[in-house]
Amino acid sequence: MTAVSEPVKRVLLAKPRGYCAGVDRAVVAVEKALELYGPPVYVRKEIVHNRHVVESLRERGVIFVEETSEVPEGELVVFSAHGVSPAVRAEAEERNLRTIDATCPLVTKVHKEVNRFAREDYDILLIGHEGHEEVEGTAGEAPTHVQLVDTAEDAAKVEVRDPSKVVWLSQTTLSVDETMERVDQLKGRFPNLADPPSDDICYATSNRQTAVKAMAAECDLVLVVGSKNSSNSQRLVEVAKQAGARDAHLIDFAREVDEKWLEGVTTVGVTSGASVPDVLVMDLLAWLSERGWGEVQEVTTANEKIAFALPRELRSV
């Protein structure tokens, strides 16, 4: 009788994954501020949405605050990668705070688009998730012109002043497919809806979703390393399931993997959100290797070579 060979356990590792240029720039900006000025360095909101990054910086003397009003007068505050509204900048100025703006340049681009369309008196439909910091900062550029469209219900009931002067923009970290679904819905109601001058969804969000789609159908389980409050990480879980993965979960650390998820699993897909340092992915690969998933095949769909200069406040120092 011939012995049935065990199926080979393997890991498909998505590339690109992890840190994008905007996150890298923001984290380096805080580290450089610590180096130049010493602690404490205040950061409004989380610099990026990742527990490991935030906890590591907190240990080094960074104080994370929810609002600018919590920063003592005259101190140094860094604005997070997600961007802030003009009202936040004005408050920082009133409190005589020294500021370093670590807003991702791709978010700044959307802010500029809002300003441009507001000047031309367009109604701006901002596709994004309610309560997300990036959306709050973007909408705050022109609150009288911007309306948030989060759900299908929002798209069905949003009203505009002049259907011939309406444009859609989007949060940079959304699912490409979900965004286009909203856009199609809106175009059904407003046939003259203008598209943004360039793609708002960030190259890194889009690339990470493409890599997951390329491997999901072969995966019994996809593990996405990322934090619960990271929009782009949450989207990777959804994209994996939609693209054919049998199961998918979001974890911050390897220790959070439930061994029950691995029952009957041959192929595990691994990726990480755009605010995740690769050390956390390496920890997960080591954890899987100890349990028999030692063979790792990289699935590459793009090579990223983008880098952003540091915030100007740190360039001249």
TrEMBL record:
Pathway: Isoprenoid biosynthesis; dimethylallyl diphosphate biosynthesis; dimethylallyl diphosphate from (2E)-4-hydroxy-3-methylbutenyl diphosphate: step 1/1; Isoprenoid biosynthesis; isopentenyl diphosphate biosynthesis via DXP pathway; isopentenyl diphosphate from 1-deoxy-D-xylulose 5-phosphate: step 6/6. Its cofactor is [4Fe-4S] cluster. Keywords: 4Fe-4S, Iron, Iron-sulfur, Isoprene biosynthesis, Metal-binding, Oxidoreductase. The active site is at E134 (proton donor). Dimethylallyl diphosphate binds at H49, H82, H132, S230, S231, N232, S275. [4Fe-4S] cluster binds at C20, C104, C202. Binds 1 [4Fe-4S] cluster per subunit. Isopentenyl diphosphate binds at H49, H82, H132, S230, S231, N232, S275. It catalyses: isopentenyl diphosphate + 2 oxidized [2Fe-2S]-[ferredoxin] + H2O = (2E)-4-hydroxy-3-methylbut-2-enyl diphosphate + 2 reduced [2Fe-2S]-[ferredoxin] + 2 H(+); dimethylallyl diphosphate + 2 oxidized [2Fe-2S]-[ferredoxin] + H2O = (2E)-4-hydroxy-3-methylbut-2-enyl diphosphate + 2 reduced [2Fe-2S]-[ferredoxin] + 2 H(+). The keyword Iron applies. InterPro entries: LytB/IspH. (2E)-4-hydroxy-3-methylbut-2-enyl diphosphate binds at H49, H82, H132, T172, S230, S231, N232, S275. Its EC number is 1.17.7.4. Catalyzes the conversion of 1-hydroxy-2-methyl-2-(E)-butenyl 4-diphosphate (HMBPP) into a mixture of isopentenyl diphosphate (IPP) and dimethylallyl diphosphate (DMAPP). Acts in the terminal step of the DOXP/MEP pathway for isoprenoid precursor biosynthesis. Belongs to the IspH family. NCBIfam families: ispH_lytB, PRK01045.1-2, PRK01045.1-3, PRK01045.1-4. This is 4-hydroxy-3-methylbut-2-enyl diphosphate reductase. It comes from Amycolatopsis tucumanensis. The gene is ispH.
